[in-house]
Amino acid sequence: MELNATPPNKDAMNCLNQIFQAEMAGIVRYLHYSFMIVGPNRIPIQKWFRDQATEASQHAIIVGEQITSYGGHPPVVSAHVEETNQHSVQALLEESLKFELETLDLYKKLVKFADADMGLEELARDLLRQETDHVNEVRKMLRKP
Fold it and tell me: DSSP string spanning 35-79?
């Protein structure tokens, strides 16, 4: 009996690496956003962005552990985080939505690439559901009352 997990296909491993980089970028992105919030609603919005950074960190840990369980090596760089210098809450939420949708697409790809690895598929679906919740939450925050 083999003790190591069987590595998934090359597409799945590449996707895991891209997700890891995206989640690492999410940490940077959301911490930056939290620093840039000013005004009377600063505290709840800053907290929300910090919570997103914490969740991105948790996702990066899960994905990094998955990569190493397959014998891979998580990248030591994150995906690029563009600085737009637009720091209104509206602008930051719009950037956040774009980022969340891109990450959501990566998780959808991972589900497809999981093949017969039911554990990887289950992990991908769970994280996909969480990312879907983020997208929906940001869309609600962007909605005008």
Answer: HH--STTHHHHHHHHHHHHHHHHHHHHHHHHHHHHTT----SSPP
Query: Residue 39 belongs to what domain range?
Result: 10-142
Structure tokens that stand for 73 in this block:
């090596």
Say which DSSP state 120 is in. Answer: H
User: Which of helix, strand or coil describes residue 122?
Assistant: helix
* CA–CA separation, 18 and 108 (whole Å): 12
Backbone angles phi and psi of 19, in degrees to 5: -65, -45
In a domain, 84, yes or no: yes
Token pair of 28 as six digits: 């940077």
CATH number of the domain encompassing residue 95: 1.20.1260.10
Q: Are 8 and 70 in contact (CB under 8 A)?
A: yes
What pLDDT, in 10s, does the model give residues 89-143? 999 999 999 999 999 999 999 999 998 889 999 999 999 999 999 999 999 999 9
